[in-house]
Amino acid sequence: MTVYNVPHDFLWGVATSANQVEGAWNKDSKGMSIADCERFNPYQDLNDYQKVNDMTTAEIESAIQDKSSKSWGKRHGVDFYHYYQSDLKLLAKTGINSMRISIAWSRIFPNGDDIKPNPKGLEFYDHLFNKMNELGIQPVVTLSHYEMPLNLVLNYNSWYDPKIIDYFDRFSKVVIERYHDKVKYWIPINEIDSIIRHPYSSAGLIKDRFPNKDFKEVIYQSMHHQFVAAAKVTKYIHENYPDLKVGSMITSTMVYPYNSDPRNMLKATQVMRQSYNFSDVQLRGKYPQVLLKQMKDMGIHVKMSNEDLQLIKDNTADFVAFSYYSSVCTAYDTEGLKITKANRTTGVYNKYLPTSEWGWQIDPIGLRITLINLYDRYQKPVFIVENGLGAKDKLTPDFRIHDQYRIDYLRAHINEVLKSLSEDGIELMGYMIWGATDMVSASTTQMSKRYGLIYVDLDDEGNGTYKRYLKDSYYWYQKLLSFKDEIPVSYLTK
């Protein structure tokens, strides 16, 4: 029997974020976050990513006045805050040895600028990490995952204000000091590159709050502040807890030329080159020339002190973490070409690939290419911390979920991952399915776009029992992990 040999310490897991699963948005002194202001709108064109992810001050004020949670998906999540023990037990039975979670900043420092942390918030994560450790599940922790305290938006203009660096530093040091013996892997900021595409959810930036400024310049200045904040976290961990590891986490969408026309080849090269801007800063320790030129060409001036640049240079990340869901094509001239969706972006349709219900093209080989590209570029361990399929799962009358389409997606992607591990000479830390249970979608704030191995009885309007049901994909992943260090190739090539 031909097998894939997997390192004994390979991290097999699942991934979530606090704002999408925890709920309990106003319990135990938690403060309001930017995610709590995102409401599902069934009448909105979900293909218009810009509109879906924009926010206005008026919408924030309206959200503050509405104390309900039903239509505000991220206020109720899937109530992981109360279900975490039973959820973790179910997940542990699959055989996972790791799980990515995030710590809600607004649960620890409700206003973001508080002097002292919220004891109730710390108590929750005490119990969570204790339970994970008890079950043999290593936490991989993100410190900022689309859940900034709302007070920092309203009174400081978010990451544009350099004071936020200090507030984030205070929050980070509190939780790292408290959990350094329970958490080995830390990611300061989720998909740090996403601030360019959706500045509100990534950094709490609202265009109408900067009426006399170039909003692009606001975004890029905030980007720099996030780089500095992440470098400070890295410095603190390396100096105080050298056995811990810090990662740079980016969004990865493979981009191909539409065809072999050299002009399209050049366009794809340019797009992919820009996609490395953020990881270059965090892993090479300096701004790439392409990013500096891009800002100059746009007339953007970002304030960067020599101290900032030295801090970034001296405190690079230990590993490359990334999300991967799909790929797109690009062309120098897209007129007349079919456009398709990807992870909060769009591109030219690839006729060689199938498409999910949300228009994302399914490309397992693109994941393998991404692994090769990232490892060759940085020569540091790579870590797939998000990969999965969003779909409209159906609960049958006998309470089953036959998600063969998700099994097919996972099988094909994991097969390419293990091929790469075996044949491409990369150093791969692990693979995590997005998500664990179903959760509220980050991009559209809806429940019906389901990713989990465990079905949660909840609809887009917040109606349901919250009861959990195991999907067919749960059992498939459980069997995969039962093979441990020797996975039969046949299990992934059926």
TrEMBL record:
Q: Which domain of life is it from?
A: Bacteria
- List GO terms (cellular component aspect): cytosol
What keywords were assigned to this record?
Glycosidase, Hydrolase
InterPro entries on file? GH, GH_1_N_CS, Glyco_hydro_1, Glyco_hydro_1_AS
Please list the residues that make up the active site.
386 (nucleophile)
Q: GO MF terms on file?
A: beta-glucosidase activity
Q: Name one Pfam family in it.
A: Glyco_hydro_1
A GO BP term, please?
carbohydrate catabolic process
User: What protein family is recorded?
Assistant: Belongs to the glycosyl hydrolase 1 family.
Name of the molecule in the record: Glycoside hydrolase family 1 protein
